[in-house]
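Section 5.1 Outputs to date
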Amino acid sequence: MIDRRLLAVAVIAGAAAAALTAYVVGHPINPADVTVERDVQSVPWGPMVIVFGFFSFIGDAKGAIVEALVFVAVLIFNRRAWPFAALASLEAGWYLLLSHLIFRPRPTTAQVLQVTEHPGASSFPSGHTMFIVTVVTVLMLCLGYRFLRGRILIAGWLAGGVLVLINGLGRIDSGAHWPSDVVAALLIALTWLTAVLSLRPIHERVFPR
């Protein structure tokens, strides 16, 4: 009933996420985060700043609308895979839990070069990153494998990876998050998604024999 390879990925990612979380709790403001944040913000991103702003815009409550639209698309074009899409969306619960259990101050202008976005609540983890990773994964697994083949499918995954990277850079460049917030969010999302996909009944709906 369990795909051991995917479960192993989930366990490794989960262990890495737990270790990083423990480090952040003990060192909420640390030299590594400050250095990387300053390095990212020192890059003249040019037109990319507009793209950063787009990813910031679709987060928060608007992200729920995007996830609902993706779920409807899965129901229409690949209904068999809907359980994975539904369970994948529950990763938002991990964000709510951790952001309430762990309060980490967000970057300030005294620590980094700029802060152009001032969201409330805790900085840890990056909810935007968890959202983007989940949406990209659901789209590729539930729809990409349904309609794409060969190099086009690979290109789809690469494009999804680029979107995740751009989002992460944007969260750091704006001063909304520390780099470790973004990395932890990626690991948490990977842990949850691979754990769900490791369940054979879910796996076989996404990848029918």
